């Protein structure tokens, strides 16, 4: 009989953490995450939906692509750092809405920060602070299945809880949207956003402890675009020629309603990942966008719970990628396809100038996502990408004062079959990552699992140093970290600033981070939302620098 690797690992019951820092490395068996054995486990399979929507059978390209409206400030609020000064105040309410996801599908119950899914787009300037009053006007009862056995989702808490995280924003900890700072229906929370950072493609989304996976699945997300003078000077497509594209998969039943799968285990419905067979773009199934014969700028977001997207264009039409999570790349990169894990973003240009009268389909592997219908006639305007976009100096390895080696692994769990932890620790274990303010660290993310984990650090931006494969069997059975081949440097599209990185399976992913901004407690976690809900999320704390001897 041939055993799968997961079965072999289960039988071996061996996991060790490769620890390092300050130039030393050694081996240690981590404390068990549970009272039981510490070993990789199988994943829960969702209970099949009896009557699913057959999205593949729906007519394609019959709905126009929705463009989210812009958010507008309606008042002012006191500036938190400058007495006597004010900042623009935006008031954003979360409420239940019905979304027509396709011409031939009944309206779908969703939750939103506005009138559609995604919510309104914030289009703001670097260096201009603002405040947002987030109001929870959602129903008292959740319409998706809560697992009360998950950390922070206790049955004695309100069913519906929200808190908003502006993903990629450099903000003080009290405005970061920490998962335990949630507030129930009827309450509001005002957060302050200094916007003291480079132009970037950010976004906002729910981050409530234990139910973030449900709240985002319901529709609580939107774009937060930050601009600056350096970007303005490039003459990039703008106005009607700049479009955010939120791409996300969902499961819909035959009546067009959102279905979130469950395990079938009484009292513990959590499943390890959710993959839908219906992919939406800006809340529509296979929509169409009429475009002129000119260049367009698309901000592409992966707002899926777990699915990695691989966007490409039919007919071999290329993307010119100009930016990633935290802003512009050093120079434009021509590429035939993208790779976006949940929460990653790509800022791309598509030039339709030579494609008059044609139809170009945006795809992700076998999925057709949407269609661009190019107008016939003369070219509306010509566009040539600039040779350089923005200086992105590489942070030298020698700048790092500490190297942390952090394990990403799976563990047996009697309640959920398995759970995934960061460095063998749960959310409420003591904080172990305490970088000093303005210090530089290298984080080595050692992924022992068969999954790609998109790891997101709040507050900071970082650069990818390299990735390196290792022999998982040599590690599990012989306690040897046997590296395979040389380190692989990041691809050109990964040479910009990042806030979310794909930690590949059975690989070490090395990032270099400057912990600048603010003192206080923040969060790092896997952005597969089901993983984060079941303990793959940890706090880190930025502390005051220790006095140095002179």
Percent helix: under 10%
Q: Please give the domain count.
A: 3
Order of strands, widest sheet: 14-13-12-16-20-18-19
- Approximately how much beta-strand content do the residues carry? 35-45%
Question: Could you name the CATH homologous superfamily of the largest domain?
Answer: Cupredoxins -  blue copper proteins
Total E-strand runs: 32
What CATH architecture of the largest domain do you see? Sandwich
Describe this structure in words.
This protein is mainly beta and 550 residues long. It folds into 3 domains: 5-46 and 394-542, Cupredoxins -  blue copper proteins (Immunoglobulin-like, Sandwich); 55-229, Cupredoxins -  blue copper proteins (Immunoglobulin-like); 239-374, Cupredoxins -  blue copper proteins (Immunoglobulin-like). The protein is 6% helix and 37% strand. The protein has helices at 5-12, 212-218, 229-232, 472-478, 529-533, and strands at residues 17-21, 24-28, 75-78, 86-99, 108-112, 122-125, 130-136, 164-167, 188-193, 200-206, 221-227, 242-250, 278-281, 284-285, 288-291, 295-302, 311-313, 319-324, 327-335, 345-351, 359-364, 367-374, 402-413, 417-422, 440-447, 453-457, 462-470, 483-488, 500-503, 507-514, 520-526, 537-542. Strands 14-13-12-16-20-18-19 form a 7-stranded mixed sheet, with no helix packed on it. A 6-stranded mixed sheet has the order 24-23-25-30-27-28. Strands 3, 4, 5, 7 and 9 form a 5-stranded mixed sheet that branches. A hairpin with an 8-residue loop joins strand 4 and strand 5 (108-112). It is globular, with a radius of gyration of 23 Å. The termini are far apart. Residues 1-41 have low confidence and may be disordered.
């Amino acid at each position: 009989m041939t055993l799968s690797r997961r079965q072999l690992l289960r039988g071996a019951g061996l996991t060790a953490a490769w620890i390092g820092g300050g130039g030393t490395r050694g081996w240690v068996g981590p404390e068990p995450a549970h009272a039981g054995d510490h070993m990789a486990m199988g994943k829960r399979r969702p209970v099949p939906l009896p009557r699913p929507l057959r999205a593949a059978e729906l007519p394609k390209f019959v709905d126009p692509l929705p463009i989210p409206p812009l958010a507008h400030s309606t008042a002012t609020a006191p500036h938190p750092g400058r007495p006597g000064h004010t900042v623009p105040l935006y008031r954003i309410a979360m409420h239940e809405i019905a979304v027509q996801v396709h011409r031939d599908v009944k309206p779908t119950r969703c939750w939103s920060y506005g009138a559609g899914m995604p919510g309104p787009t914030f289009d703001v300037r670097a260096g201009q602070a603002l405040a947002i009053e987030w109001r929870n006007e959602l129903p008292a009862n959740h319409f998706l299945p809560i697992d009360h056995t998950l950390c922070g989702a206790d049955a004695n808490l309100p069913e519906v809880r929200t808190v908003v995280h502006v993903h990629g924003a450099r903000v003080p900890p009290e405005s970061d949207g920490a998962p335990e700072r949630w507030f129930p229906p009827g309450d509001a929370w005002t957060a302050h956003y200094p916007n003291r950072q480079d132009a970037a493609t950010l976004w906002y989304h729910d981050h409530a402890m234990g139910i973030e996976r449900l709240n985002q699945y319901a529709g609580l997300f939107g774009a937060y675009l930050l601009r600056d003078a350096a970007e303005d000077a490039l003459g990039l497509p703008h106005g009607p020629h700049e479009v955010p594209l939120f791409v996300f998969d969902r499961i819909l039943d035959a009546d067009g309603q959102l279905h979130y799968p469950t395990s079938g285990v009484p009292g513990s419905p959590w499943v390890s990942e959710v993959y839908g067979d219906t992919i939406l773009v800006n809340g529509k199934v296979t929509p169409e966008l009429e475009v002129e014969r000119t260049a367009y700028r698309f901000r592409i977001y992966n707002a899926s719970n777990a699915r990695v997207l691989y966007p490409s264009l039919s007919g071999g039409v290329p993307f010119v990628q100009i930016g990633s999570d935290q802003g512009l790349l050093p120079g434009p990169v021509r590429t035939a396809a993208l790779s976006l894990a949940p929460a990653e973003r790509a800022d791309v240009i598509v030039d339709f100038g030579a494609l008059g009268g044609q139809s170009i389909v945006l795809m992700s592997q076998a999925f057709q996502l949407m269609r661009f219908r190019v107008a016939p006639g003369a070219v509306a305007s010509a566009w040539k990408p600039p040779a350089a976009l923005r200086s992105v100096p590489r942070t030298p390895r020698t700048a790092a004062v500490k190297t942390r080696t952090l394990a990403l692994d799976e563990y047996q769990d009697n309640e959920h079959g398995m759970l995934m932890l960061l460095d063998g620790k749960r959310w409420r274990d003591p904080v172990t990552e305490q970088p000093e303010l303005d210090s530089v660290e290298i984080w080595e993310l050692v992924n022992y699992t068969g999954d790609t984990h998109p790891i997101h650090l709040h507050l900071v931006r970082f650069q990818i140093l390299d990735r390196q494969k290792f022999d998982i069997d040599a590690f599990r059975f012989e306690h040897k970290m046997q590296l395979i081949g040389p380190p692989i440097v990041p691809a050109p599209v990964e040479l910009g600033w990042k806030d979310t990185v794909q930690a590949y399976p059975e690989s070490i992913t090395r990032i270099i981070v400057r912990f600048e901004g603010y003192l206080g407690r923040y969060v790092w976690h896997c952005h597969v939302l089901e993983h984060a809900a079941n303990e793959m999320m940890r706090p880190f704390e930025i502390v005051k620098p220790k006095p140095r001897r002179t």
